[in-house]
Amino acid sequence: MDITFATDKGRFNYRVAGIIINDNRLLVIREEHSPYAYLPGSRVQFGETLESAINREIEEEVGLESITLRPLWLSQSFFY
User: Fold this and answer.
1) 56 vs 38: CA distance, rounded Å
2) What's the mean pLDDT in 9-34?
3) pTM (2 decimals)?
4) CB neighbours (10 Å) of residue 42?
């Protein structure tokens, strides 16, 4: 079960993303009808660590087995 919930003030999503650099190129995902690019990742599941969540997502989205070296930063975004 993903860690996400709605309130009367908005929605909370607990999300992780990974940085993959190969040959000095950064992997980003772009969707055909969206002007945005984003890092591969998704929501954390209940009972899952951040490291296992990002490793799972990288394998699901990119098809690569990954190892999380260390967390880089925390970002908060509020969308209403």
Assistant:
1) 17
2) 90
3) 0.72
4) 16
| C-beta of residue 10 within 8 angstroms of C-beta of residue 79 | yes
Q: Quick check: 26 and 18 in contact, CB under 8 A?
A: no
Determine contact, residues 57/40, Cβ cutoff 8 Å: yes
Q: What are phi and psi of 25, to 5 degrees?
A: -120, 135
pLDDT greater than 90 at residue 23: yes
> Dihedrals φ, ψ of 73, to 5°?
-160, 170
- Numbers of helices and strands, H then E, in the chain: 1, 8
Q: How many CA atoms lie within 13 A of 2 on its CB side?
A: 13
Q: What is the length of the chain?
A: 80
